[in-house]
Amino acid sequence: MTDFSYDDFMQLSEHELVPHLNDFSVLFAQQFSREKLNHLCKVADAARYIRRTSAGADFLAGLLKHYSVLNFFVQPSSRTFLSFCTAESMLGMRRLSVRDINISSIAKGESLSDSIHTFISYVDLVVMRHPDDYSGVDAFWTTLKSHRRLTLKGEKCPIPIISGGSGKKQHPTQSLLDIYTLERAFKDMGGIDGKTIMLVGDLKRGRTVRSLSYMMKEYKDVSLIFCAPEEYQMEKDILNFLDDNGIPYKFANSIDEAVAEADAVYMTRIQDEWDSEKKTDGSHTAAKEDFIFTMENLKQMKEHAALLHPLPKRDEIEKEIDYCDDERVYYWRQERNGMWMRVALIAWLFKVDEEILNYKLHNRL
Ligand code: NCD
């Protein structure tokens, strides 16, 4: 299916790799068109309505009951792991998991590619979180080379790989749920088009904000504000991408400076697990004062604005905000949206998304 050698394939840029993905695997935020994003939001909404009745829950659980999935998560994860597991079980999939690289054969020196080849001998989907930026590409190459194929609606497909976060660069499914959350937050105001989104925190090593920036290309008249201490500012490759695609952005030196202009504020934590000197006393790098979202900032936000965070959070949002009963605080709903979006994503990969939409239509839900 690919003439590329492993080494040549691994040399391709994300941009060059996108056409090879061909809807078989989900590795990069750039692979989603506006049409696909809208479709996935629609399927997520449909699944959420359908699951409200027990007949609907049974319908969903019948869709993929003959398929199995491995959740291969060898970096810490709570939400992504659990929401994938829940989404998979809602669709009736049989689930296996590997969460510790030290108890897989990789600890015996097996290559990632050989391990993936083994996994896909047993399961029909691999969801993976891995510290290497190109781990998903490695896995995808292996699925192309392996002989196993799924037949989905008459089409032969390699075993899909979904990235649940790879290295510092990409977290496409987080961005899908972020898009879904933003679209819901702005549903009476024309959706994401025309909005200003402020990204705050560790933009340099945060894969969520990088992937979300890529997806902004699909929306009209969006502008971005990057609010980070200098050492954590957004990397040049993303700024170049925004320049090339005519997406305006600016920088802010504190949340105070720009919060009143933003339609959405997307907070992130300092990603200190990437620091060369790891802390051994359990402490974490504190967020700097100018980059901590306070009750005062909540007052300064626009009336319709949304406060998001991919979570986990630490000290970058004032504690009182968590349960202050303000409709603009979206992060708890955002994490639940992740589950519905992952139902939609898996359904789409396995080509049962239209069945979900039709069920909703026919049952007038
Ligand atoms: C994020 C991640 O893993 O990149 N978490 C998540 O998936 N919700 C953000 C983070 O860890 O800070």
Describe this structure in words.
With 365 residues, the protein is α/β, with parallel strands linked by helices. The protein has two domains: 191 residues, Rossmann fold (3-Layer(aba) Sandwich); 165 residues, Rossmann fold. The protein is built from 14 helices and eleven strands. The strands form three sheets. Strands 9-8-7-10-11 form a five-stranded parallel β-sheet. A four-stranded parallel β-sheet has the order 2-1-3-6, sandwiched between helices. Strands 4-5 form a two-stranded antiparallel ribbon. Helix 9 links the parallel strand 7 and strand 8. Helix 3 crosses helix 13 and helix 6 crosses helix 7. The chain binds N-carbamoyl-L-aspartate. N-carbamoyl-L-aspartate binds next to helix 5 and helix 9.
Total strands = 11
Which ligands does the model contain, each kind named once? Answer: N-carbamoyl-L-aspartate
Query: Which stretches of 5+ consecutive residues score pLDDT under 50?
Result: none
Q: Taking Cα atoms only, what radius of gyration do you get, to the nearest Å?
A: 20 Å
Strand content: 5-15%
In the CATH scheme, the class of the largest domain would be: Alpha Beta
Structural classification: alpha/beta
Mean pLDDT: 96
Number of domains: 2
CATH architecture of the largest domain: 3-Layer(aba) Sandwich
Order of helices and strands: HHHHEHEHEHEEEHEHEHEHEHEHH
Structure annotation, total helices: 14
Shape: globular
The helix fraction, in percent, is 40-55%
State the strand order across the main sheet: 9-8-7-10-11
